[in-house]
Amino acid sequence: MQGDYQLQDYEKAVQNFKWSDTEKEFSWHETGLMNIAHEAIDRHADSYRKNKVALFYKDGTRKEAYTYNDMKRMSNKAANVLTNHSTLERGDRIFIFMPRSPELYFSLLGALKMGAIVGPLFEAFMEGAVYDRLSDSEAKAIVTTPELLDRIPVDKLPHLQTIFLVGESIEEDDKHIDLNKHMKKASAAFQVEWLERESPTVLHYTSGSTGKPKGVLHVQEAMIQQFQTAKWVLDLKDEDVFWCTADPGWVTGTAYGVFGPMLAGATSLIVGGRFSTDNWYEAIQEYGVTVWYSAPTAFRMLMGAGAGPVGQYDLSSLRHILSVGEPLNPEVIRWGMEVFKLRIHDTWWMTETGAQTICNFGSLPIKLGSMGKPVPGIEATIVDNQGNVLPPNRMGNLAIKKGWPAMMRGIWNNEEKYESYFMNDEWYVSGDSAYMDEDGYFFFQGRVDDVIMTSGERVGPFEVESKLLEHPAIMEAGVIGKPDPVRGEIIKAFVALHEGFEPSEELAEEIKQFVKKELAAHSAPKEIEFKEKLPKTRSGKIMRRVLKAWELNLPAGDLSTMED
Ligand code: PRX
User: Fold this and answer.
1) Are 434 and 444 in contact, with CB atoms under 8 Å apart?
2) CB 104 within 8 A of CB 165
3) Which segments of 18-62 are extended strands (E)?
4) Sign of the CA dihedral with 465 first, then 466, 468, and 474 last
5) Which of 151, 157, 214, 125 minimizes the C-alpha distance to 462?
6) Residue 564: what pLDDT?
7) 3-class state of residue 185 by DSSP
8) pLDDT tens-digit readout, 353-394
9) Alpha helices of 235-289 — where are they, by DSSP H?
10) How far apart are CA 252 and CA 265, in angstroms?
11) What was the pLDDT predicted at 362?
12) How far apart are CA 68 and CA 263, in angstroms?
C-alpha cells in the first residue's frame, strides 16, 4: 500500500490499508524512536529536498523564503536558545503566543525538537483566556512579542519562569530573554530528543459546552495520519505550493499548517495579517498556490466581495481546494465551481481527532451537502445515546472507533473528562449529530451540545457566560449561537441585570467590550438582549435551549425541568 498516495481505489484501500503501512515512510519504523520535528524538517533537509522551499512567508512588511535546510538550522537554533536560557526539559509545557511569523514556526519546531509540549495560543487571546490555559497546564515558558506581554499575568502564574520575546530592542533580565538576539549567536546544530510513539507533542485548548477550555493532548504517533491525509486528502505532491489559511492557535494550523505538509515534504505558504479579499487573491497569484485549505466563512466572505476582484487576479494555478470547520453550503461549492472551475472538497474532523477523519477524496464522486467518507483506516458510524450502531439514514451521534493514530491521548489534568468522550470503551463520540446514507456518505446535522462555531472558531458558551457574570451590571447570562449567513453563527448573549442597572445601548456596548478585552474578540457577543429573567432549570442551570427557541421562534420543547 505504501506509495498509493493518490488513493485511486477508495474501496480497495478501505479493505487493505493498515496504518502500519504508512509508518514505513519514516526512519523510526526501524529504530522505534522518533521526533515529529525531525520527521517534518530534518529528514527532508538531509535529502534531495534540502534546497527546496519549505516555507514562504508573506505579510505587509516581510517577504521571506526558507528551504528545508534553513528550517532545520533555524529550528535547531531555536531549540538551543530554549534549552540554554530556561530550565525547560522534555515534557514541560511551553506556550507560543504571537502573530504568525517565521519565528513562530522556528520556536514551535525547536520546542518539539527538545521534547517539550507545545501549547499554541491564538494571538487574539486576552488576559483571562491566557491565564486559564497557562495555569491549567502549569506552563514553564512562553514565546511571545512585547506587544502581547501585558496580557500575560506573570504574577499569578508561579510556574512561568521564562518569557522569550520576539521583537525590537528587548530589555532582558532573569525572566525575559530576547529570542532573536540569542538565535543569531546560537549553534545551528542540535541533537534532537528521541521519543516514543506515545510521547506528547502539542496541547490545544478547546471549548466544550460546560466548564473551562480543555487541554487536548496529542502525541508523536499523530504524524502517521497527518502525513497520510496530506497525501490522500490534500493530495500534496512535490511540486505543489500549499496554503492553509488557519492560525496555529487552532488545530488546523498545526496539523495542516505545519505537520501534514512538512511531513510530506511540500512547500507551504504562510500569510500573516488579517483577512482581506485582495491580499488573499494576490497571495494565490504571487506564489502560484496549487492546493488551498480554508474555511466556509472565508469562502463566503470572498463570495460576498463579488466577481470583480476575482477578475483582477490570475488564480489559474489552483488545482485543489478544501474546506474545514463548518458546514460547507452547496451554494459555496457552486460559487467555487464558477470562479475557480474547481470543486471545493469538504473535510470533517476536530481538535480531538488530531487529523482529518471524514473527507471528500479526489477519487470519490462528491455528494452535495455531504462531508464525504471516512479516511481508510478510520471507522466512523452513527450511534444512538446508548452506543448502539444505527442503520443508514438515521440521525444520531457521529462516532469514531477508538484507537486511530492522531486521536487525542488525554485531557490535561482531567482524566474523567477524557473518559467521558468514549462510549462503552469503543466509540469516541464527537458531539456532532449526523447521518450516513446507504452509500456510506456522512451528512452533518449540527452540534448535539451548545458549542458555538463562529467564523470556524469554536467557542464554549460557558466560558463567555462566566466572563459576563464578572461584569458588575450582570446578574444572569445565557449565551447561544445565532445563525448567520456569513459567519455560520454569531454569539448572542441574553442577560438579566442587577437592581439599579438599566438596559441601554451604551451598556450593551460596554459589555461587549468587556468580554473582548478579557477573553478575545471572537468570543465577544455580537448581540446582547436584556431580559428581566432568564429561563432556568429548578437546579438553577440556564436553559440555552429555550433561549435558542426564543431567538428562532421555535417551540421550546419539554419545559418540565424549568423553574416556575
Ligand atoms: O461541529 C464540528 C465542526 O467543528 C467542530 C470541531 O471544531 P474544532 O475542534 O475547533 O476543529 C475545527 C477544525 C478541525 C466539529 O465538532 N466541523 C468541523 N468540520 C466540519 C464541521 N462541521 C461541518 N462540516 C465540517 N466539515
Assistant:
1) yes
2) no
3) 53-58
4) positive
5) 214
6) 61
7) helix
8) 999 999 998 888 888 889 999 999 999 999 999 999 999 999
9) 251-254, 260-263, 277-287
10) 18
11) 81
12) 11
- Torsion sign over Cα 399, 403, 408, 410: positive
| Distance from the alpha carbon of residue 451 to the mean position of ligand 1, in angstroms | 11
Residue whose CA lies nearest to ligand 1 atom number 22: 326
Residue nearest to atom 7 of ligand 1 (CA): 350
Question: Which residue lies with its CA nearest to atom 17 of ligand 1?
Answer: 325
432 lines ligand 1 (CB under 6 A): yes
407, three cell numbers? 486521536
* Residue 308 pLDDT: 87
Which residues, 6 or more positions from 371, have their beta carbon under 8 angstroms from its beta carbon?
328, 346, 347, 348, 358, 359, 360, 434, 441, 442, 443, 444
User: Which residue minimizes the CA distance to atom 15 of ligand 1?
Assistant: 350
Question: What is each CA distance from 211 to 206, 322, 417, 464, in whole angstroms?
Answer: 11, 32, 10, 11
Place of cell 477524557: 418
Mutate to test the pocket of ligand 1, among 323, 350, 445 (most ligand atoms within 8 A of CB): 350
Which H/E stretch holds residue 65? Answer: strand 63-67
User: Pairing between strand 241-244 and 200-206?
Assistant: unpaired
Rg over alpha carbons for the chain, rounded to the nearest Å, is 23
Asked if residue 431 has its Cβ within 6 Å of ligand 1, the reply is: yes
Please tell me the number of Cα atoms within 13 Å of 302 on its side-chain side. Answer: 24
In angstroms, rounded to a whole number, what is the distance separating the alpha carbons of residues 36 and 542?
Answer: 44
Question: Separation of 384 CA from ligand 1 center, angstroms?
Answer: 20
Query: If you measure from the C-alpha of residue 479 to the centroid of ligand 1, how many angstroms do you get, rounded to a whole number?
Result: 20
pLDDT, tens digit, 9 for 90 and up, residues 169-184: 999 999 999 999 999 9
Residue 440: phi and psi, rounded to 5, are 85, 10
Q: Which residues pair with 56 in a beta bridge?
A: 65, 269
Locate 336 and state its grid cell: 467555487
Tell me which residues of the chain have a pLDDT lower than 50: 1-3
Chain-centroid distance of CA 277 in Å reads: 22
> How far is the C-alpha of 124 from the C-alpha of 251, rounded, in Å?
16
**Using CA atoms, how far apart are residues 7 and 362, in angstroms rounded to an integer?**
8
The end-to-end CA distance of the chain, in Å, is 63
CA of residue 409 to ligand 1 center, whole Å: 19
Q: What is the pLDDT of residue 2?
A: 40
Distance CA 411, CA 203 (A): 9
Pocket test for ligand 1, best of 245, 251, 326 (most atoms within 8 A of CB): 326
User: What pLDDT does 5 receive?
Assistant: 67
Residue nearest to atom 14 of ligand 1 (CA): 350
Q: What is the pLDDT of residue 509?
A: 97
Task: Give 273 Cα–ligand 1 centroid separation in angstroms.
Answer: 23
Let me know if 207 is exposed, middle or buried by CB neighbors in 10 A (0-12, 13-18, 19+): buried
Q: Is the CB of 327 under 6 A from ligand 1?
A: yes
pTM of the model: 0.93
Cα gap 97→523, rounded to integer Å: 17
Q: Closest residue (by CA) to atom 24 of ligand 1?
A: 327
Q: Choose the residue to mutate in 398, 445, 453, 455 for probing ligand 1, maximizing ligand atoms within 8 Å of C-beta.
A: 453
